[in-house]
Amino acid sequence: MPEGDTLHRTAIGLAPHLVGRTVSAARVRAGGPQVGRIVGAAITSVEAIGKNLMIRFDNGLEIRTHMRMNGSWHRYRPGERWRRPPARARLVLEVPGAVAVCFDAPVIELFETRAEAIHPTIARLGPDLLAADWAPALADEAFRRLRDPARADATVSSALLDQRALAGIGNIWRNEALFHERVDPWARVADLDDDTLRRLIATAHRLLRASVDTAPGRSPMWVYRRAGRPCRRCGTLVRSAQQDPSIARTTYWCATCQGPDGPPG
Q: What positions carry a catalytic annotation?
């Protein structure tokens, strides 16, 4: 599943070709939203919020897409051959000089921008780790949400993936952040002290920000997808196991650096 850093890179890549240009054509797979309503409207912004890509228009509408596991946005020149089959296109936006195609995304919504504050998904998101205005106040809010009594018994791994606590982090960066801070992935949130939680938030923010600012694939992973290979810090073989069913993601960790030897039980 694309994480916040991927969506932010996508927004950065699309914005120069879309913002300020008028939609000349728009089409969506059968059963999708009525995108004809945005034809003739100018695009005012392309922004990532957590794992969501938001495209806003000057007629008061906006489109939200969520990639889930396989979705992606591509940008082409008019007439350029697409890199994926047209049948996989879920949404196509045409503006002068560019064609933006959203492939395979299961979530495509069109709604009024003024409704964003009460949107059932967007309004519930925690602080975006890649927000342009990231500041101590947002880090404090993320900490407050992680400390919510409802998350006390959750593993720290599942809590970090809860977009209602802090938005943008996914399986890659929660594994990497936990390794960097030497935190047991199966520790309960309630068992971690405040300083550890705050360090995890700061580290997740730093790793995501560095990923956006670095060419994709340039930053080596420390534990993610390195099961059976030596830990880059201590040489112990990196291990992997399925995390609790509520998140259905693989956890990677070093038993020496983070411990213990695996999930309880």
A: 2-3, 51, 249
